[in-house]
Design a protein that fits this description.
The complex is a heterodimer of chains A (180) and B (342). With 180 residues, chain A is an alpha+beta fold. Helix content of chain A is 31%, strand content 36%. Chain B is an alpha+beta fold and 342 residues long. Classes of the chains: A alpha+beta (180), B alpha+beta (342).
């Protein structure tokens, strides 16, 4: 009984990724997400698809976003970061470079004092808003009219629009402390 | 109310059947798109475009464009596949809701149409009976004038001479015939003179009890049985009593004054039904359709003009209610009085 509980605990611990690491640069709080997240079974499966896997990093009052899409044609990952200050960077990285790129810290919030407790949440979505929008339009055309003179943004669009959504495939929460 | 419940149950059942059918159909078209082999073909197509690029580098841009189009299609399918159950559920719900709305609308329109037809039928019946009333009034008037003159003349003739026994018999015979004509004229007049009801809230059960006491004196061997719980109706007490007298008199004639007449009261929404049932011989099929028309009767000539049911129906139509022959057979008849609840 005890050994079974111990085994379950070990399996659970093994399934959990490492904790992120916070750093402070000026008043900017940066987070380096652990590469073990990319190795999680559910996440790895999504990264192998052609959809844009989206990682939303949220604090209480701000959010950053990381998008990764595997480009089947060039066989590289198209990666994009949008930090808490809405600065966007994007590039293409190889599979070997992906982990290094992933380790690079991203700004998630601002620090008001010398230290702060930060509740961090990471939500992994199977596709991006752009993927969702594209699929929605495609499905709307299938259900709606093909006549361009008729406005098809009616019942079908409303129906599909609120139906297709990216539900998190996995999410994590950490309580961390940021200090200068 | 019962109709509404029935219609609602039918609509719900039809919607559920429709929902189940839509589930099959919607699932079918969605699964056609989401079949694994469809996705396999798309994946192979992607690989083919890449292979073509290697074989024909000069046209790489073209293959790239096709590749991207195919990739987008695969992405769309993947997004829809991830939301398959939600898309299906929503699709089915919207269609079922539309179906239910259509069904309810159709039922509502049908009900309105039925009600309009009913109102039109009532208006026609009232108009027809009113026309009969007017004709009766004229007949009564036309008969009364010469009748009065004839009476005066026979009075004068009787007073002029000392009549012989033969003349006396003739005078008495003429008096009797004039009296019969006067009785018929009176019936005409009673039909012509039906007043408009003055509606008041009346306790139907109490009114029935009073009526039974009163009517028992006229037909001592007739048993009147009342099954009624307290209910208030909007009625003119005198006119309603006249209707009951007409119906019970007919029942008494049908049972030769020795049967049982049962009054049963029931309610349906704003309407109150009073069923009057007897164990008489029933209404002959040949006159069932015309039973409420004036001068339609099963009695022998000289034993009533067949105005009672016409008068009764006119009274109840003027009440905003109705009188109908609910059922009839050789074992008896049931007439239904419909009144409005007060």
């Amino acid at each position: 009984m005890v050994s079974a509980a111990l085994l379950a605990f070990l399996l659970l611990a093994a399934a959990q990724p490492d904790r992120p690491v916070l750093a402070v640069a000026g008043d900017r709080v940066l987070v380096a997400l652990p590469p073990s997240i990319l190795k999680q079974k559910e996440v790895r499966a999504r990264l192998e698809s052609a959809l844009t896997t989206t990682f939303v990093v949220k604090t209480r009052d701000s959010a950053a976003r990381i998008e990764i899409r595997y480009d089947l044609w060039d066989e590289v990952y198209r990666v994009k970061r949008v930090d808490a200050s809405a600065r966007t960077t994007q590039q293409a990285v190889t599979a070997a470079q992906l982990e290094t790129w992933w380790r690079a810290p991203i700004e998630i919030t601002r620090l008001a004092g010398d230290r702060a407790a930060i509740d961090l949440e990471l939500v992994v979505l199977p596709f991006s808003a752009a993927d969702e929008s594209d699929a929605r339009q495609w499905l709307s055309k299938s259900g709606g009219t093909r006549d361009p003179s008729i406005d098809s943004k009616s019942v079908v669009d409303a129906l599909i629009g609120t139906t297709l959504s990216a539900r998190p495939i996995v999410s994590y929460r950490w309580s961390l402390e940021a200090r200068r | 109310m019962k109709t509404f419940v029935t219609v609602s149950l039918i609509v719900v059942a039809a919607t559920l059947i429709f929902y189940a059918a839509v589930h099959q159909i919607a699932g079918l078209w969605l699964d056609v798109v989401l079949r694994p082999d469809v996705r396999d073909v798309i994946e192979h197509s992607l690989l083919d475009q890449k292979a073509l690029r290697n074989l024909d580098p000069a046209n790489e841009a073209r293959y790239r464009q096709r590749f991207e189009e195919t990739r987008r299609l695969m992405n769309r399918i993947d997004v829809v596949a991830m939301n398959r159950e939600r898309v299906l559920r929503r699709f089915e719900m919207v269609l079922a809701a539309l179906f239910a709305a259509l069904l309810f609308t159709a039922t509502f329109l049908w009900t309105v149409r039925q009600r309009r037809n009913e109102e039109r039928r009532r208006a026609e019946q009232i108009a027809r009976l009113t026309a009969w009333q007017e004709a009766s009034r004229r007949h009564a008037h036309e008969i009364k004038t010469p009748l009065t003159a004839a009476r005066m003349e026979i009075d004068r003739l009787a007073s002029l001479t000392t009549p012989s026994e033969e003349v006396q018999r003739a005078v008495e015979s003429v008096y009797e015939e004039l009296e019969r004509i006067a009785q018929f004229t009176k019936e005409f007049s009673s039909f012509a003179m039906i007043g408009q009801p003055v509606l008041r809230a009346e306790e139907l059960d109490r009114l029935l009890a009073e009526f039974c006491d009163m009517f028992a004196n006229a037909w001592p061997n007739l048993t009147l049985h009342v099954e009624a719980s307290p209910v208030m109706v909007s009625a003119d007490r005198d006119l309603l009593r006249q209707v009951l007298v007409n119906l019970c008199t007919n029942s008494a004639h049908a049972t030769e004054g020795r049967g049982t007449v049962t009054f049963t009261v029931s309610r349906a929404g704003e309407r109150v039904f009073l069923d009057v049932a007897d164990g008489g011989g029933g209404v002959p099929p040949s006159i069932q359709a015309r039973i409420f028309e004036p001068y339609v009767t099963t009695r022998k000539i000289g034993h009533g003009m067949g105005l009672g049911l016409a008068i009764s129906r006119k009274i109840l139509l003027d009440h905003g209610g109705d009188l109908a022959l609910l059922s009839t057979s050789p074992a008896g008849s049931t007439f239904r009085i419909t009144l409005r609840r007060a």
